[in-house]
Amino acid sequence: MEVKMRLIDELWRKAEKIYSEILKLPFIEELMKGILPEEKFIFYMQQDTLYLNEFSKALALAGVRSSEQKHFREFLELASAGVEAERRIHDTYFNRYGINADVPMAPACFTYSHYLLSIAFCGSYGKCVGALLPCFWIYREVGLYMLKSLTESNPYGEWIRAYSGEEFSLCVDRALAMAEEIAGSLSKKEFEDMGDGFIKASRLEWMFWDSAYRLEKWQPAVK
Predict the structure, then answer these.
(1) What's the rounded Cα separation, in Å, for the pair 114 and 131?
(2) Rounded distance between C-alpha atoms, residue 218 and residue 94, angstroms
């Protein structure tokens, strides 16, 4: 029996090379092996917490822009339940390391967060929906990729299990199912916009992890 290809699978196909490059990042490779320096993981978790605050706002804004009541509710639920699932894993490591997110946004975090918010405010609806997907979809794929090599001694095992686990996967499935419905209602131009948003956000995912590995700071470093 032939499996029907989803419209959103075309988005993934276009971003597949970006995803392959994400898997080659030192941050990803070392986290998977459990040898990522703690300082870099903490930097990442702090920045990701700041990012999630803005991501949830972008999800809510996308819901407000929806003409479908069911999509409005779904976006708001993802902004609440979906993001909350990610925040719990942050809390686990924040408690373990005794840290908080009282830090300034690094350049990559700032760029990604403000891209999503600007698109949610004034970009096309298709581009907005497309830009919100990588944070769900790519994270699950990365989590599943890492799970295959997970050892009990990996200090980042809880992070890997969280993003490859059932709770997060259900949130991803909900986001993708809604995106597929929305994609089916878009014009050709709007679907192209959706793809553009997906590609740009996928690149920003790469930049975010690369930034964490480099402990990126604003330049020039003057007060």
Answers:
(1) 12
(2) 24
Q: pLDDT value at position 104?
A: 94
What is the CB-side half-sphere exposure of residue 29 using CA atoms within 13 A?
A: 8
pLDDT in tens, 75-90: 999 988 767 777 788 8
Distance CA 211, CA 112 (A): 11
CB contact at 8 A, 50 and 113? yes
The conformation of residue 24, written as its DSSP 8-state character, comes to T
Read off the tokens for 62.
């996308």
Q: Helix count (H) and strand count (E) of the chain?
A: 11, 0
- Provide the CA 3 distance to its chain's centre, in angstroms: 27
Domains located in the chain, CATH noted: 38-214 (1.20.910.10)
Instruction: Please tell me the total number of residues recorded for the chain in this structure.
Output: 223
In angstroms, the Cα distances linking 78 to 72, 74, 103 are 10, 6, 26
pLDDT, greater one: 208 or 87 = 208
